[in-house]
Specification:
The protein has about 400 residues and is an alpha+beta fold. The protein has helices at about 5-10, 15-35, 125-130, 140-145, 175-185, 195-210, 335-350, 350-385, and strands at about 45-50, 55-60, 105-110, 115-120, 145-155, 160-165, 215-220, 225, 230-235, 240, 245-250, 260-265, 280-285, 290, 315-320.
């Protein structure tokens, strides 16, 4: 079977490679925590974006990969991930960067080994072989021509895994601020201090219901990333306004275990939250990582005209049931009876959002009519006072 281009460029949005690498790092951090690999049990994920030199580095201080197992990184079909337990499950996401750089490099060290292993993927060469219609090489043969190894001495106490993308071809991947904002809504990170009032409510709700969200220490060019939620909505057209509260919702399965839970913002609902706000729209999440994008939750409204209501709020739907699994590109969930049941329940829950929007619209309409009537009465009174509008007299 030929090595298809779908392996080299799997995502409609190139930024998804950040999600994939952060997801992989998070899985290894979970293992490192279970093993208490570091005495402090502190692990982080560092992303360095060098726009000038078109270079990206993504490093975690988790388990790393041992020398004897590093060759598994080149096996497209191989994955040691446990479906439903870990955040990733295919293992192929590690190769996502091949579609957006000239060289993809994995650099790793495993605790107890005094060696650093460097695996280089020549993405340009791979693309050339794939594009060559006269070349009928099998996947393994193509990889053999494009992958090389190097070994260096390393401190045996070090443990890390680093992804390096050289000569990045997509400008979007090099925009530091935009990538930071993207990760603040996609990555499994904690709520920010500026959102602490509602963040405390969310965490109390989780404690009360024996729920949890995995969070990780993620940095972009040295700045820690938190969820992008704020308590102020910026609206150049209708005027800025505050989020005054949040409301929770949830559904359980037949075993009285949570299928999903979530929350949504409570505000004046002046219209769709403008897209220049970092938090806008209801977001679907699994293991605290976003599924799809800010428009995915529109599907949970029956009528096309109602789908805009998903953008009148911001909030999260956190899927808990491990049998509800993301699809290959993490755009949505895999087909099945459980997905259909989930959709039915969430569509019912989202009806309250429609009702709230309609009620807010009615209130605004009533206020507008009242204001118009009051202004009209004031205008008549002024004209009467100035002698412009005098009542008629009968002779």
């Amino acid at each position: 079977m030929l090595l298809s281009r779908s392996l080299v460029s799997m995502y409609e949005d190139s930024r998804c490679i950040y999600r994939e690498y952060v997801q992989n790092a998070a899985d290894q951090i979970d293992i490192a925590c279970e093993q208490h690999l570091d005495p402090s049990n502190y692990y982080d994920i560092q992303i360095w974006i060098d726009e000038e030199n078109r270079r990206i580095e993504i490093e975690d201080t988790a388990t790393g990969v041992s020398k004897e197992r590093v060759n598994l990184l080149r096996d497209v079909a191989c994955s040691t991930k446990h479906r439903g337990k870990q955040k990733g499950f295919r293992g192929i996401g590690r190769l996502g960067g091949l579609g957006y750089c000239s060289n993809l490099i994995f650099i790793t060290s495993f605790k107890g080994e005094d060696v650093q292993t460097i695996m280089r993927w020549d993405a340009d060469r791979m693309n050339q072989l794939i594009d060559d219609e006269m070349d009928d090489s099998e996947a393994g043969a193509v990889i053999d021509q494009c992958v090389s190894y190097e070994y260096k001495h390393e401190d045996s106490e070090k443990h890390y895994f680093r992804v390096v993308m050289e000569h990045v071809t997509d400008d979007k991947l090099l925009q530091v601020d935009a990538i930071s904002q993207y990760l603040s809504m996609v990555a499994p990170v904690d709520y920010p201090t500026a959102f602490s009032k509602f963040g405390h409510q969310i965490k109390q709700y989780m404690r009360d219901n024996n729920l949890s969200l995995d969070t990780y220490n993620l940095f972009v060019n040295g700045d820690q990333i938190y969820k992008g939620y704020t308590t102020r909505i910026v609206d150049a057209k209708n005027g800025d306004y505050d989020v005054t509260d949040i409301q929770f919702f949830s559904q359980k399965d037949s075993n009285e275990k949570f299928l999903y839970w979530g929350w949504y913002s409570v505000s004046e609902l002046r219209g769709q939250i403008p897209a220049y706000n970092i938090p806008y729209g209801m977001r679907l999440r699994c293991k605290n990582i976003q599924i799809g994008d800010e428009t995915t939750c529109r599907r949970f409204f029956n009528a096309d005209g109602d789908r805009r209501f998903a953008q009148y709020f911001y909030g999260e739907v956190n899927v808990v049931n491990p049998d509800l699994q993301p699809d290959g590109r993490r755009d949505y969930f895999r087909e099945g009876d459980l997905r259909r049941h989930f959709e039915k329940l969430l569509t019912t829950d989202f009806q309250i959002l429609k009702v709230l929007c309609n009620e807010a619209s009615d209130i605004r309409g009533t206020v507008k009519k009242f204001t118009t009537a009051v202004n009209g009465q004031e205008t008549i009174q002024k004209k009467t006072h100035n002698g412009i509008c005098q009542p008629s007299r009968k002779g």
